[in-house]
Design a protein that fits this description.
single chain; 269 residues; alpha/beta; Nitrilase/N-carbamoyl-D-aminoacid amidohydrolase; six-stranded mixed β-sheet; 25% helix; hydrolase; C-N_Hydrolase_sf
């Protein structure tokens, strides 16, 4: 399975519309890949809280969803389009969510995940966005994806639930700050080792809202080995994965069968 992480530079001097067009072209350039992954909140910037309300959009028919669906269809790839600020209309008004979108190669929306753990300690995202409540997996021809976003990395119980739901490859778009880059690398590898799963962690580059981004998107295998890692700037990080590696590691080192707490252990595949 050929996977590419597009580490987008969220430049505040670039309009959202221009960035959306540019990123769509980058996705179209990935024909031949099986899965393409974008970062968290790349249209507006993960730390640009003052832009969340103005940049919010619906999932169905929203400009980012429309552009990414067309790009996935043109490239013929599965596209995890990172996340958007979703505006969900309710009887009491509108709620905002940090929502990831997964498109099939025909451009159909295959899955959406609302971020469960909101960052900010009562400010920013934590104050402005509602929390998701659902564990989301998606079956691709080669693997089962488990969806999480950025700050979720710090909550291993979510990844245990994804594991129990059948996840074999964990996809984590992020807008992670450079000052905590060491935590980024540590947590991505930890989630891979404890879940015996691939982890595809795609971050942003550049500086937005005064916060320099970590970059260094990572692909980690089920044994915790880093297969590919980006640098500080915008780039495409590509790697070929063997989906059978998950079953092989789980069989060779069957730690998951020794679990004694929580939900029943998943069957080894």
């Amino acid at each position: 399975m050929r996977a590419t992480l597009l580490q987008i530079d969220v430049d505040p001097s670039e309009t959202v519309a221009d960035r959306r067009t540019r990123v769509a072209e980058m996705v179209r350039g990935q024909r031949g890949a099986d899965l393409v992954v974008l970062p968290e909140l790349w249209p507006v910037g993960a730390f640009a809280a003052e832009s969340f309300a103005a940049g919010a959009e619906p999932v169905a028919g929203g400009p980012t969803a429309t552009a990414m669906a067309a790009a996935a269809r043109a490239a013929g790839v599965w596209l995890h389009a990172g996340s958007i600020v979703e505006r969900a209309d309710t009887l009491d008004g509108a709620e905002l969510y940090n929502t990831s979108l997964l498109f099939a190669p025909d451009g159909a929306l295959h899955a959406a995940y609302r971020k469960i753990h909101r960052f900010g300690f009562d400010e920013g995202e934590a104050a402005l966005m509602a929390a998701g409540a659902d564990i989301v997996t998606a079956r691709l021809p080669q693997t089962v994806l488990g969806l999480a976003t950025c700050y979720d990395l710090r909550f291993p119980e979510q990844f245990r639930l994804l594991l129990d739901a059948g996840a074999q490859t964990l996809v984590v778009p992020a807008g992670w700050p450079a000052r905590r880059r060491a935590h980024w690398r540590l947590l991505v590898q930890a989630r891979a080792v404890e879940s015996q799963s691939f982890v595809l962690a795609c971050g942003t580059a550049g500086t937005h809202a005064g916060v320099r981004q970590a970059g260094h998107s990572l692909v980690v295998d089920p044994w915790g080995e880093v297969l590919a890692e980006g640098g500080d700037g915008e780039e495409a990080v590509s790697v070929t994965l063997d989906p059978g590696r998950v079953a092989a590691v789980r069989a060779e080192f069957p730690v998951l069968r020794d679990r004694r707490l929580g939900l029943p252990r998943p069957a080894l595949r």
